[in-house]
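User: Sequence in, structure out. Go.
Assistant: Echoing your sequence, followed by the structure tokens.
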Amino acid sequence: ESAPYVTVKILQDSDVPVIKLNSITTDGNARLNTGTISGTAEDDDGISNMYIQLVSSEGTLNENNWTPLTVKNDGSWSYEIPKSGNPLTPDGTYTLYFKVVDKENTTFETGKTSETGKTSSPYISDTSGESSKVKNSVSFSVDTTKPKILEVNVSFDGGKNSIGISNNQIFGGKKYSSASFTVKASDTVSK
């Protein structure tokens, strides 16, 4: 007599590359004020090729627009946003996509599903750990514009009364032992 069959479910979702971002969070609230995106990538089969694509809020993913990344032996990579001809020249909101080809020649692309309907997207996480893992694209904002200082005030009485200060303001003396400053500034922040 033969043993009964046992149904075993294999979670294919666990056999995908993991990309960890160092300079952007996966919650969609990240602001990038430098021209570098960096992180690490790992896959149990090893990584043959890795690509990145940045798309502005007005654009769409273009299959012919992938930029190859160099993944070092320790899994680290970085991407320097080009300074000319760059889609990130204006401040704004952007979406980050990845494509990874492992050493078994399996391709994983952000937000894609395989022919069988299973997700074949890499996990993307940030430095906050497992809770930050996502399988979709990551959005972030670029804000390179410095805030404009509108007003600077000083108070010598714990904030009850304040006065505007000028470039030639003199501080010191015996009358006041401390001062508090209030700075009013404005900045246009993209959503």
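User: And one key feature?
Assistant: The longest strand covers residues 92-102.
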